[in-house]
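About this split. The held-out portion is used to measure sequence recovery: a designer receives only the C-alpha cells and must propose an amino acid at every position. Recovery is the fraction of positions where the proposal matches the reference. Here is one held-out target exactly as it appears in the evaluation file.
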C-alpha cells in the first residue's frame, strides 16, 4: 500500500524504467494491485494532486504497453507540517486510497505538537488516518502507539522492520 513508484516525484524511483522494473518484480511476487504514495512535504517534495495524477497516468500507460496485468492507484504520503494543517483546516481535499484512508508521517525525533489535533480533524472530516512507519520515530512507544490507535489512527509498519532491518540497512538490499 505504501510505495514510491512514480518517476522523479520524490526519493523513490528516478525514472519510468525503474518504475516498470519494480512493477514487474511486484507482479512476479504475486501482487495484483499497487498503491503508490509519493511524498507531499512543503520543504522538500512540493507535489500537487494534479502532478501525481498525471505521473500516475504515464505509469499506467507504460504498464498497459508492457502488458502487465496489475492495477495501480495513487494517493500521497503527507508530512505533518504547517502546510498540511492549513489544508486540513481549510478542508482542502486530500489524496486518499481505499475508503478515505490518508497516509501521513511525522518528523523522526519529536512528537509533533499538532499530532492529536490532526488526527481529530481528519477523522471528523471523514478520513481514516494512517501513520506511516511508526517504528522509525524516536518518540514512539507502545503506549503512544496504543493511544494513537485509540484516537482512531491506524499504524503501518514497514515489512523489513518486522524482519529486523533498519531503514538504513534495508535501503541497499535488492528486492528479490
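Reference sequence for scoring:
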Amino acid at each position: 500500500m505504501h510505495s514510491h513508484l512514480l518517476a522523479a516525484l520524490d526519493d523513490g524511483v528516478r525514472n519510468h524504467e525503474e518504475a516498470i522494473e519494480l512493477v514487474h518484480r511486484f507482479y512476479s511476487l504475486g501482487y495484483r494491485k499497487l498503491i503508490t504514495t509519493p511524498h507531499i512535504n512543503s520543504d522538500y517534495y512540493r507535489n500537487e494532486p494534479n502532478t501525481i495524477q498525471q505521473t500516475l497516468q504515464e505509469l499506467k500507460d507504460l504498464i498497459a504497453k508492457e502488458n502487465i496485468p496489475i492495477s495501480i492507484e495513487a494517493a500521497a504520503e503527507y508530512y505533518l507540517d504547517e502546510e498540511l494543517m492549513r489544508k486540513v483546516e481549510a478542508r482542502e481535499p486530500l489524496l486518499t486510497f481505499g475508503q478515505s484512508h490518508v497516509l501521513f508521517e511525522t518528523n523522526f525525533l519529536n512528537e509533533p505538537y499538532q499530532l492529536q489535533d490532526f488526527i481529530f480533524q481528519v477523522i471528523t472530516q471523514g478520513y481514516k488516518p494512517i501513520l506511516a512507519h511508526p517504528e522509525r520515530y524516536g518518540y514512539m512507544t507502545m503506549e503512544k502507539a496504543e493511544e494513537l490507535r485509540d484516537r482512531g489512527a491506524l499504524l503501518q509498519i514497514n515489512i523489513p522492520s518486522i524482519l529486523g532491518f533498519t531503514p538504513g540497512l534495508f535501503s541497499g538490499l535488492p528486492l528479490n
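Annotator remark: The chain is about 40% helix and 15% strand.
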